[in-house]
Automatic annotation (TrEMBL):
The keyword Transmembrane applies. InterPro entries: T2SS_GspF_dom (IPR018076). It is a multi-pass membrane protein. Its main location: membrane. It is found in: Cell membrane. Keywords: Cell membrane, Membrane, Transmembrane, Transmembrane helix. Residues 148-274 form the Type II secretion system protein GspF domain. This is Type II secretion system protein F. The chain crosses the membrane at residues 6-25, 83-102, 108-127, 254-279.
Length: 288
């Protein structure tokens, strides 16, 4: 009797939980549907929303937040949305496959292990994607920074102050990764920070070492009275020299990358043609 009562209460709790989830999903579905989404998009967004909120809540914990900020930098929110989407897909797949697996007499621990492994892979994939975005952002900033420094030199030599020259050079900078970082610096300037402090903060957020070096150079020029235009021009030339050296190093590595296709594809075909030309008369004579 007691065991039957426990099973009945457990079943009732499960049914109430499922009904509550369906009711919450229905409210979110209607909300996204009224926002202009299609039927399929609204259904998926309603399913994904609670998992995205759960991921955001987990990543806001003190130690986890520090790890995410250090790993993803300015792409933390984008990676949170990406990880929430992956978790939603994972839970959907685990639910469908788990129901089929249990119907064939499978164990619940196997399903939980599969879910834990999928969650770990999702976190590792999000971490790798975030680092790749940061590396791409860093490379683009390093590529475009010398051009911005040239514009800054022209603005300084025309008689503008440092912050006015920064704003004028920023207006002429093409849209891209560097423009995003520089607009963040401009926002810090509007908040009341000095230019070197704002650059150092954005450099730590986006992990652009060159901006931090530029901030140190600007502080040195302001403290010692050095020529700002001369310092910026030397900084641009130094960065161009580094970029040219890295391009030459990549070009020197190209023969190593070409070695594998040569050994695997071209050399066997060449040896086959030579062998057939040498063995062709002998094979024709043997056949005759």
């Amino acid at each position: 009797m007691t065991l039957s009562l426990i099973w009945l209460l457990s079943a009732a709790s499960a049914v109430l939980l499922v009904m509550g989830c369906l009711w919450a999903w229905r409210k979110r579905y209607l909300f996204f549907l009224q926002g202009g989404s299609s039927l399929g998009q609204a259904a998926w967004q309603a399913w994904q929303a609670p998992f995205a909120q759960g991921v955001s809540l987990c990543l806001s914990l003190p130690f986890v937040h520090e790890w995410s900020e250090r790993s993803w930098g300015a792409y933390t929110r984008q990676m949170q949305a990406y990880l929430g989407q992956r978790v939603a897909i994972l839970i959907l797949l685990v639910t469908v496959i788990g129901a089929w697996y249990l119907s064939w007499g499978g164990a619940l621990m196997d399903i939980l292990g599969m879910a834990a492994a999928g969650l770990l892979l999702s976190v590792l994939q999000a971490a790798s994607r975030g680092r790749a975005l940061q590396r791409r952002h860093h490379n683009r900033c390093r590529r475009d920074l010398p051009f911005f420094l040239d514009l800054l030199v022209l603005a300084v030599e025309s008689g503008l102050g440092l912050q006015q020259a920064w704003a004028r050079a920023l207006e002429a900078t093409p849209q891209g990764s560097l423009s995003i970082s520089l607009h963040k610096v401009q926002g810090e300037l509007r908040a009341g920070r000095r230019l070197p402090q704002a650059m150092r903060k954005i450099a730590s957020t986006f992990r652009v070492v060159e901006l931090e070096e530029l901030a140190l150079s600007l502080e040195l020029a302001q403290d010692t009275g050095l020529s700002l235009a001369l310092l910026l021009r030397s900084q641009a030339e130094k960065l161009r020299a580094h970029l040219q050296l890295e391009a030459e190093q990549r070009a020197l590595k190209l023969p190593v990358y070409l070695l594998a296709p040569l050994v695997v594809c071209i050399f066997p075909c060449t040896f086959l043609v030579i062998a057939m030309s040498l063995l062709g008369p002998w094979l024709a004579g043997g056949a005759g």
